[in-house]
Specification:
It is a single chain. By secondary structure, the protein is α/β, with parallel strands linked by helices. It is built from 11 helices and 7 strands. The two termini are 32 Å apart.
Length: 310
């Protein structure tokens, strides 16, 4: 589908197993694509949801003149990524006017989902933010300056070594006895192997995309933005206790506390002890209780909407 930003968005749709009672929009993470969420979408459609999963700019099969692979845009990339996601929301709503809309995001997708809730919260029935680190402290401020230097020395279209060292490479080294650089994602070796073999996964973002990601994190985590969340919007936060990308879930707990301080009254937050970064792709020991918790949360939202006075 076409986005007002000029992107041709590749959208996958899993239709509800019966009459749809709601809509779920899925936001994938960095250096992957929506095709990795087919199993999750199949589970969610059995909750009577129409599930929409699109590839972000610079990822997968989405294309745009200003967004080659590994880059969001030549300018305003952070804003355009969120605008694309809202375009999918508008398209889904046009198919099913009046149905509740829930946004689910993993990692970078969780940051995008949170920004959607901050900007368009009145249009949503719920937002789930999984495995996302919205910390923006001294290290992140140093990273901003480092990316500026890297851009000045190398340009915007080259892979950001600074970003790679601070994220994927550091997280990979944190796993004791790791077989591959990607073991930090999951305990499931087949998931890790599929990820490593996928030409659309595991890439290092360009300096441009890395800068946009830092900007997304900064904006989504600002107190002024968190205060824009509707106080009665159901929010589901989840992290892995062995996820290096969120400091073992500490960043998720910190985000939950900040959201509550800013007035949100309906925040569900949990840490899955032992789980690594991709909870949806973990072994069943970790994955099953997480998905079960999300399913209960979604069912409650659908029931609340169905019982609301017309």
């Amino acid at each position: 589908m076409d986005s007002p930003t000029g992107a041709a968005l590749h959208v996958r749709v899993a239709r509800a197993s019966s009459v749809p009672r709601g809509i779920l929009l899925v936001q994938h993470g960095l250096a992957e694509h929506g095709g990795r969420y087919e199993g999750f979408a199949d589970e969610m459609r059995r909750l009577d949801l129409d599930v929409f999963v699109h590839d972000h700019r610079g990822h997968g099969s989405t294309s745009a003149l200003d967004a080659p692979f590994r880059r969001f845009a030549t300018s305003n990339g952070a804003a355009k990524v969120v605008a694309d996601s809202h375009a999918v929301l508008a398209h889904a709503r046009s198919e099913h006017p009046g149905l509740p809309i829930i946004v689910f995001g993993h990692s970078l997708g969780g940051t995008i989902a949170l920004q959607m809730a901050e900007r368009y919260g009145v249009e949503l029935a719920g937002v789930a933010v999984w495995n996302a680190n919205l910390t923006f402290g001294l290290q992140e401020r140093i990273a901003v300056q480092g990316l500026k230097v890297e851009r000045a020395m190398k340009g915007s279209d080259v892979a950001s070594r600074l970003f790679a060292r601070a994220t994927f490479e550091a997280w990979g080294k944190s796993v004791e006895g790791a077989r591959t650089p990607h073991d930090w994602l999951s305990h499931d070796p087949s998931v890790v192997e599929d990820y490593a073999r996928d030409p659309l996964c595991g890439f290092t973002p360009t300096v441009s995309m890395a800068s946009d990601i830092v900007d997304l994190v900064r904006r989504a985590g600002e107190e002024a933005q968190l205060s824009q969340l509707p106080t009665d919007l159901p929010i589901h936060l989840l992290g892995g206790g062995s996820d290096p990308a969120t400091a073992g879930g500490e960043a998720v707990d910190a985000l939950a506390a900040r959201i509550r301080i800013n007035g949100s009254r309906r925040v569900t937050s949990e840490i899955v002890a032992g789980a690594r970064h991709e909870t949806l792709n973990e072994i069943e020991l970790y994955r099953a209780p997480a998905v079960a918790s999300l399913s209960v949360w979604i069912r409650d939202i659908l029931a609340e909407h169905a019982n609301a006075p017309s």
